[in-house]
Amino acid sequence: MISEMQLVFLILAATTVCFAIPKFRSDLVALCSLLALYLAGVITVSEALAGFSSTVVVMLAVLFVVGEGISQTGLAGKAGNLLVKLTGDSEFRMLVFVKLLVAVIGSFISNTGTVAILMPIVVSLSIKMNIHPGKLLMPLAFGASMGGALTLIGTAPNLLARDALINHGFEGLSFFDFTPIGLVILVTGTAYMWFVGRKLLDKPYEKKSNVADTVNVSELLRQYKIDENLNCVQIPAEHELVGKTLKELKWGSGYGVTVLKVRKKTAKGILSGSGFSQVLASPSYILEAEDILLLYAPPSSLQKLLSETALEIIRCESVEGLQIQDVNIAEVILTPQSNLINRSLRDINFRDKFGLSVLSVRCRNQGAKLPDAQEKFNYGDAMLIYGKWKDIDLLAQEKSDLVVISHQATETAFNPVRAIMAGAVLLAMVVLLVFEWIPAVISVAIAGLFMILTGSVRSTEQAYRAVNWQIVILIACMLPMATALENTGGVAFIADNITAALGGAGPIAVMIGLYVTTSVFGVFISNTATAVLFLPVAILAAQYMGISPLPFVMAVTYASSMSFATPVSTPPNAMVMVAGKYKFLDYMKVGIPLQILVGVVIILLLPLFFPFGI
């Protein structure tokens, strides 16, 4: 018969393994863990649901709304435009400003939102400067994580650290307690990426393929293997298809064939020119005699269509103007909070919903392939889409679901009045958090409310959409795990073993042990889950040694967020993987040395800013 503590550790081990498997959603894993703890009798109903009333959970949810206000008013976009003006043609200035800008914005709004705003700008700048986007997108992702270390609200582990200290009877952390060490981390990371990281990312195969020209349509077609599936057919006069709409034909569902473009006859004249025009295919388009259709389909699907319709292939090269154009094609990447995750194209009804066709899909660590209507999407997956410019441009505004890159979309409209109000609300929130005149959660709630009342967030529905519910549910469901570990003696068991093994060498050795253990866990599971698990251990270990818990707590907090070694370490890492054309090994060879270097810097600085003495 196993003890309650052993049972909790068993559930924790299973949870950790499931967190490390990309196929499983982290919030659902955490919810299953919560239910397992309750059904095992380890926690009560009130303890199981306590996470949903946590001030950290409430603050985090509202902070997403605050960040949405900054984004929707165009304020964050204007900050991105500064990057364009300040960079010039200097690669050094570009890398430095990318790191600084993403860190500054990321210290106030979510790191995934920051990357979603700046990634298209960085890709566009890279193309103009003839620099491979991969040399800047990884620094962008790493900078977002480092920005979270600058302020109390920069990332969830910071808020969890403050809450853990208060719950154990200690004074909470203030808004700028993270800033001094965070600035050193940012400077160290920037120097490393310039002198070491960018050279490791300068891969020979990238130079040969000239992929720096990623916005060029021919390059995108090559990368996504589109050309081999493009064909043209002509509708003969008096054919049975004449007069039918594309929707009636159901070629997409019946054959797996998509009509992208049509070359049709027009009356010759002064205004009509050559007597031909090209139009994008829409479901309502009515086929006419001698129309030439640009089809996208795999060979087997195309042959089936041709055999049943008696149509014949003609050479596309002989048809003037029937090509895919830059404004009609774009590359999009799913964000971590996207509503499209774990749903298929059939579930989404993508073409009808957005008016766009998905030509090809690229999953993380995989090559491009034809879209499978039933295959589920994961965050970080990329799609090549085709359709009307205005539809792509509208899609680009929905940054909560998709980030549109390699497309010259209109930026979020800048509203000076609302931008000033949003900036004022953000500033007022920071002032309230610094001086702590009212509880921090109330300060954040007031800021979120004013973002809606001032119109900085377009509507209440938009505010709800802005919240990353996956992270909110994850934290709310993992907090009871910490309770279960404390109730059953699991926290004491871990703290006892760490202090017994390293305590004889002094508090610095214990701090190093906590940092390394947390850092290793943070590579495989989310930073929030890692912080939830190890913050109680850090506090109890400090109490055993009779020292201040601050150095240990800060070590765990920084270690939770400074994960660079894999694409699954943080959502920003996964978001830039496809756009940067990275492989798993790229993260390891660039991220592991950086993670070690940052760890050394943090360990050296922590005792100076947070002494061990009580």
Record the SSE blueprint.
Elements: H1 4-19, H2 26-39, H3 45-49, H4 55-72, H5 75-87, H6 91-106, H7 111-128, H8 134-147, H9 156-167, H10 179-200, H11 204-209, H12 217-223, E1 230-234, H13 246-249, H14 251-255, E2 258-265, E3 276-280, E4 292-296, H15 299-309, E5 313-314, E6 329-334, H16 345-348, H17 350-354, E7 356-362, E8 368-369, E9 382-387, H18 389-396, E10 402-405, H19 416-435, H20 440-453, H21 460-466, H22 469-488, H23 490-502, H24 507-524, H25 527-545, H26 550-561, H27 571-575, H28 584-609
Antiparallel strand pairs: 1-4, 1-5, 2-3, 2-4, 6-9, 6-10, 7-8, 7-9
Helix pairs in contact: 1-2, 1-22, 2-22, 4-9, 4-20, 4-22, 5-6, 5-7, 6-7, 6-8, 6-10, 7-8, 8-10, 9-25, 9-26, 10-28, 19-20, 22-25, 23-24, 23-25, 24-25, 24-26, 24-28, 25-26, 26-28
Offer a concise description of the structure.
With 614 residues, the chain is α+β, with helices and mostly antiparallel strands.
Q: What amount of the residues lies in strands?
A: 5-15%
Average of pLDDT: 84
Largest sheet: 5 strands, antiparallel
Rg from alpha-carbon coordinates: 27 Å
**Secondary structure: helix percent:** 55-70%
| Spatial sequence of strands, sheet with the most strands | 3-2-4-1-5
Shape designation: elongated
End-to-end separation in angstroms reads: 42 Å
Q: Please provide the count of β strands.
A: 10
Low-confidence stretches: 203-215
Number of helices: 28
Structural class: alpha+beta
Would you mind describing this structure in some detail?
The protein contains 28 helices and ten strands. The protein has 614 residues and is of the alpha+beta class. It has a five-stranded antiparallel sheet, with no helix packed on it. The model is unreliable at 203-215 (pLDDT under 50).
